Amino acid sequence: MSTTALDESDREELCRLRHEVLQLQSSNDTLISSIHHLSGELLKRRNPFPLTPSSSSMIPMKRSKQIDPLNIFRFSQKSALGSQKKEASEKEDIGLPNEIMLHLFKYLSRSDLDRSALVCRRWKKIIDVHRCSLARRRIRLFKIIETTPNVIMFSAATSTQNIKYHFDLNLNGENQSPDVIHRVAKMLKYSKVRRLVMCGFRLTEVMVHDLVTIFKKADILFHRLEMIGVSLRNLSADTFQKFIGEHIIADQYFLDGICDSDSDHFGSRLFERTGIKKAEDVTIYDVSSINDEEVILDVGDDVLLDFIFGKYTDAVDRATVYLDNPAISSAFVYNALVRFAQESDLKHAIIHSEISHCRDQIVHNNRSTRFEYNVEVQAEYSSANKYTNSVLEAKVSKTADDEFVHVTLTIAAL
């Protein structure tokens, strides 16, 4: 079709498209020219003095002890040329623009990025400055476990290898040596840990300080923290809460069999920490004291409901919470049903909540609550929210031989 058969708007659009094609062709030519130029410069830097056919075919002779003036001249000439090349590279930055280099680096793995950072200072600076947007080292499982009495093992497992370090557990109050911290931080540098498992040892103030130093040096991201059978005998409540809720920002927290603790370790301030508030899953189960007695989690109705309904967080992927033996009242379920009906925004709420070993619940008749059924082992109530067109289903399970009950709260669409 000829341009005469087109109207004015079509001709303008056709001209605009032709102009864009010309610009793309020009940009493409410039990019290809830059790549060729950079490749040539890299080849020159790698082999600035190519061998001639005659010199390459010569048989190496035994090194002479005599000083050859010609060799001295060549050495001085090479040093002079090297100095000139260094000065030229400092004056003129030869290579692709930083934006293009960054785009290319995004396709590399962390191992390739580590090797690329050794090429030159410019590449290293680009990789270090933009490390948050580049690939991280994938660690499937990072374990901190007491293998034998007073011996801690740090183990990092990737898809291809397993690196281990064993250290004597320092019980005299001194910090680990800088060499230990450096080696572990190097092992974890710029990594994303899928599971951090801390198991079977006594957590102290000194150890927390060393671990926080390692995590900061390595710039780690955590997906899941599992703390199993860890003793808090020598750790204050404030240090413990900051450690798991601020220094370790994880998507999931699983704490089971924590011993030698008290109610302050799992008080209301723990649920106000950044990591705990934003986590998609939080589980705290079977916490015991120094006397091996069950510890009541010092969290009341208001604090727990604020946490469940997401009053102090902007996270939207909060899925589940499981708490064992919290200090809630017998009116907790009733308060949850009434408050749910009044909430205008539930985007930050936890979808599924389970609370075990709590007091028997008393639910009063109210226009915000609806009684569903009550049998010997379970009673169910519900509450509708007209603002979000959703419903809160509350189940209270109980057994004849147990004075405590199990509460389940589930938010679902109507």
From TrEMBL:
Residues 90-139 form the F-box domain. InterPro entries: F-box-like_dom_sf (IPR036047), F-box_dom (IPR001810), LRR_dom_sf (IPR032675). SUPFAM superfamilies: F-box domain. It comes from the Eukaryota. SMART domains: FBOX. This is F-box domain-containing protein. It comes from Panagrolaimus superbus.
